[in-house]
């Protein structure tokens, strides 16, 4: 019975070969000795061409678009620092194919909005069109500086990169919440819920944090600001609203403040007494205190609405990978992924179905984006620990492991597709590896 090789799985096998740990297992050679269910190939075998990165960002070479016998030198101008940072774009693996949209945005290419007391820069569909489901903002506040009281139609999830940030919020039921969120910890605000952010003086330099929103069209330049609203409602109405003389509002700003300097909050600050009570669930989460799952080659911590109740639309895997280690080949069934590299060097291939695949290189400060169901891996291609955030738009973190899938599928079926040996299949893992060592 002829069984045709499926092109999707041929591509998957190419991705597999990128993992040296898997490549050390004898991958199936044509099983000419097999007596039963020997596949009848209808397409050629996947290429064994070496497809590693040809240089790294710190190489001292003249990078050229040449891989093996393919390509040729550049005769026109070269931007060598950019070329060194993107070896998989200039000399891509031969497994790349088709028109996968750009999936990399260095925040250093974003416009930076400079304010007295800090700055903000963002990534959204305007600079990375593939990122339809999520957007991000990198924000810096000097000690005491405030990102003013505001709200927006998207949910806001945050990771503190440095220093600590005091957050405040009030729910529609009138319950309040105040907390200081430390480096490596999270907060989350549901859509429309008003909140504020203020740098504490715990770090004399203040704070910097990463904000992620559950809508790719989000722009931090079009949020609803307290001062902007007050400046655009007749003063008589404001006085009537609070049942106070208009003179009580003589000094409200005539335009938005957005980010502005102020005195740092007291270190023991408490939320005002609230007759409705404090919120029953916290709006911050101590990710830095959580114990990581240890794997050969790295660690992972997962936070979603099962352990951080209020985080209904955004989940995270905080991952560290040692040099050469790899987040295994996997995909997220229905969830878009927004990645942020905190430090180190990463290589990711997006497999987009229909023969389409593209590989990108990332480093600290870069954003990556992977649409739902796109097969991918994250490989540490540097000489230092890779630390990154895998942020999913979901209430529940989910992924499908290629390794586990194939281990739990009838071996004859796997053999019929991939023509691998029983020995090879016996090495597939019935539990998710999550991370594979070098
Ligand atoms: C994202 O925001 C835009 C503009 O506000 C809105 O039209 C769209 O419906 C939102 N998308 C989702 C998935 O909520
Ligand atoms: C984390 O691990 C440490 C050391 O193994 C242990 O003492 C501690 O109880 C763990 N914490 C939690 C929250 O599991
Ligand atoms: C890793 O070390 C090698 C050998 O010293 C060097 O060529 C390469 O540039 C380094 N890679 C990075 C990302 O620093």
Your description of this structure?
- It comes from Rhodofomes roseus.
- Residues 265-283 have a biased composition (Polar residues).
- The chain has helices at 7-17, 20-23, 80-85, 87-90, 226-230, 235-242, 402-407, 411-418, 422-426, and strands spanning 66-67, 70-71, 104-106, 112-115, 118-123, 135-141, 146-151, 156-162, 165-170, 176-181, 186-189, 195-199, 207-213, 224-225, 259-260, 284-285, 293-295, 298-303, 314-321, 326-331, 337-343, 345-351, 357-363, 366-370, 376-380, 386-393, 400-401, 435-436.
- It contains nine helices and 28 strands.
- The radius of gyration is 25 Å and the shape is elongated.
- It has a seven-stranded antiparallel beta sheet, with no helix packed on it. The protein has a seven-stranded antiparallel beta sheet with strand order 4-5-6-13-8-11-16, with no helix packed on it. Strands 7, 9, 10, 12, 14 and 15 form a six-stranded antiparallel beta sheet that branches.
- Helices cover 13% and strands 31% of the residues.
- By secondary structure, the chain is of the alpha+beta class.
- It folds into three domains: 1-49, no CATH class; 108-285, Jelly Rolls; 290-436, Sandwich (Jelly Rolls).
- The structure holds 2-acetamido-2-deoxy-beta-D-glucopyranose (3 copies).
- One 2-acetamido-2-deoxy-beta-D-glucopyranose is lined by residues 153, 215, 217.
């Amino acid at each position: 019975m002829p069984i045709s090789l499926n092109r999707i799985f041929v591509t998957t096998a190419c991705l597999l070969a990128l993992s040296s740990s898997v490549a050390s297992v004898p991958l199936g050679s044509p099983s000419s000795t097999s007596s039963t269910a020997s596949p009848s190939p209808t397409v050629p075998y996947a290429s064994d061409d070496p497809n590693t990165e040809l240089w790294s960002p710190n190489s001292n070479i003249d990078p050229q678009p040449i891989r093996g016998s393919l390509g040729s030198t550049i005769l026109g101008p070269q931007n060598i620092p950019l070329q060194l940072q993107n070896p998989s774009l200039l000399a891509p693996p031969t497994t790349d194919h088709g028109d996968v949209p750009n999936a990399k945005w260095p925040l250093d290419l974003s416009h930076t909005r400079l304010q007295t007391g800090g700055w903000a820069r963002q990534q959204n569909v305007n600079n990375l069109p593939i990122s339809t489901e999520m957007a991000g903002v990198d924000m810096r506040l000097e000690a005491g500086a405030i990102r003013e009281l505001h709200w927006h139609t998207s949910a806001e999830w945050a990771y503190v990169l440095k220093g600590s940030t005091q957050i405040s919020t009030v729910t529609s039921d009138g319950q309040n919440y105040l907390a200081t969120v430390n480096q490596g910890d999270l907060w989350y605000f549901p859509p429309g819920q008003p909140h504020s952010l203020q740098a504490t003086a715990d770090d004399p330099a203040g704070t910097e944090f990463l904000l992620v929103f559950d809508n790719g069209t989000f722009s931090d330049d079009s949020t609803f600001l307290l001062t902007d609203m007050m400046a655009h409602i007749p003063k008589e109405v404001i006085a009537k609203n609070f049942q106070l003389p208009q003179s009580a509002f003589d000094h409200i700003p005539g335009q938005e403040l957005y980010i502005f300097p102020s005195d740092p909050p007291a270190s023991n600050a408490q939320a005002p007494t609230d007759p409705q009570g404090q919120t029953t669930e916290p709006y911050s989460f101590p990710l830095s205190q959580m114990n990581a799952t240890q794997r050969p080659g790295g660690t992972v911590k997962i936070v979603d609405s099962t352990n951080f109740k209020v985080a209904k639309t955004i989940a995270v895997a905080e991952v560290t990978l040692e040099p050469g280690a790899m987040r295994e080949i996997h995909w997220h069934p229905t969830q878009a992924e927004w990645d942020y590299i905190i430090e180190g060097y990463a290589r990711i291939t997006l497999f987009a179905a229909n023969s389409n695949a593209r590989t990108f290189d990332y480093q600290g400060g870069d954003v990556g984006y992977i649409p739902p169901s796109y097969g991918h891996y994250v490989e540490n291609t540097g000489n230092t620990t890779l630390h990154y955030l895998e942020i999913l738009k979901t209430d529940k973190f989910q992924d499908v492991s290629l390794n586990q899938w194939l281990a739990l599928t009838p071996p004859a079926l796997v053999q019929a597709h991939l023509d691998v040996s029983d020995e090879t299949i016996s090495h597939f893992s019935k539990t998710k590896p999550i991370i594979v060592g070098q």
